[in-house]
């Protein structure tokens, strides 16, 4: 009995998506998986959070905020040219500020104060939930360990951030007037910063992802980042209502 020959030739690699299709797939991740769809954010924007729930979110989200310049420092160290490093370094300064009293971290502390929290409560991080710590550590380690393409692609949640910031500003002004309007400066600043940062990161990802495998890894990295943000809210929403510990 003859045995049919079995081909051992590897399958040819898949053709990369066109730049337009690749960009559309990246944007679809945000449309389908970004945390604007999370029930906690929906309740926040509908005005359904208690003061305690809102304060708990501010405390736990600050743990993520204060690690943004850390992950950006890790990404900066991976970039191959002075031009790219200068571009990415600006993100660190956006959050840490050029000097004391400036930057996104300071603006988040002022948001906490406007919501009735002592800044030492945020800085001590005693009330940060274990699940939030795990999610943030996972993202920082991803940026530490993964190649530049994936680390930069994970930042593309910024494609969706400006719309979320505008929605949040409107929601806070309408539903949470007990928070001083000056405390919303972080959200206002991130509208323009998010547009600029996402344009720069998207341009890099589109240029760097030359193969179909590269493109798939970039999309997977962005999905991972959406999962990080979703997990953070799962934890904050899952502990029940009340003041932060």
Short recap of the structure:
The protein is mainly α and 245 residues long. Helix content is 69%, strand content 0%. The protein is globular and about 65 Å long.
Count, helices: 12
- Largest β-sheet summary: none
Q: What's the shape?
A: globular
| Amount of beta strand | under 5%
- The count of strands amounts to 0
Helical proportion, percent range: 55-70%
Rg over alpha carbons:
20 Å
Helix-strand category: mainly alpha
Mean pLDDT: 93
Fold blueprint:
Layout: H1 19-33, H2 39-45, H3 51-65, H4 68-78, H5 82-96, H6 104-114, H7 119-124, H8 130-145, H9 148-154, H10 161-175, H11 185-208, H12 212-238
Brief descriptors of the model:
245 residues; mainly alpha; 69% helix; 0% strand; disordered C terminus
Description:
The chain is mainly α and 245 residues long. It has twelve helices and no strands. The longest helix is centred in the last third of the chain and has 27 residues, at 212-238. It is globular and about 65 Å long. Residues 241-245 have low confidence and may be disordered.
């Amino acid at each position: 009995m003859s045995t049919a020959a079995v081909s051992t030739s590897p399958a040819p690699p898949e053709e990369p998506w066109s730049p337009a299709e690749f960009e559309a797939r990246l944007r679809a991740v945000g449309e389908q998986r970004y945390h604007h769809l999370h029930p906690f954010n929906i309740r926040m924007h509908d005005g359904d959070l208690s003061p305690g729930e809102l304060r708990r979110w501010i405390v736990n989200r600050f743990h993520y905020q204060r690690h943004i310049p850390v992950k950006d420092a890790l990404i900066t160290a991976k970039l191959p040219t002075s031009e790219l490093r200068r571009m990415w370094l600006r993100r660190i300064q956006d959050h840490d500020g050029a000097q004391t009293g400036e930057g996104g971290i300071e603006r988040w502390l002022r948001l906490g104060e406007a919501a009735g929290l002592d800044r030492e409560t945020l800085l001590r991080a005693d009330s940060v939930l274990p699940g939030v710590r795990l999610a943030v550590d996972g993202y920082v380690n991803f940026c530490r360990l993964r190649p530049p393409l994936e680390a930069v692609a994970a930042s593309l949640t910024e494609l969706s951030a400006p719309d979320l910031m505008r929605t949040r500003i409107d929601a806070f002004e309408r539903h949470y007037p007990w928070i001083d309007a000056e405390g919303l400066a972080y959200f206002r600043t991130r509208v323009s910063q998010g547009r600029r940062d996402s344009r720069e990161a998207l341009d890099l990802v589109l240029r760097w992802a030359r193969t179909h495998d590269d493109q798939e890894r970039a999309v997977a990295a962005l999905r991972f980042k959406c999962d990080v943000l979703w997990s953070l809210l799962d934890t904050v929403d899952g502990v029940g209502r009340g003041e932060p510990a």
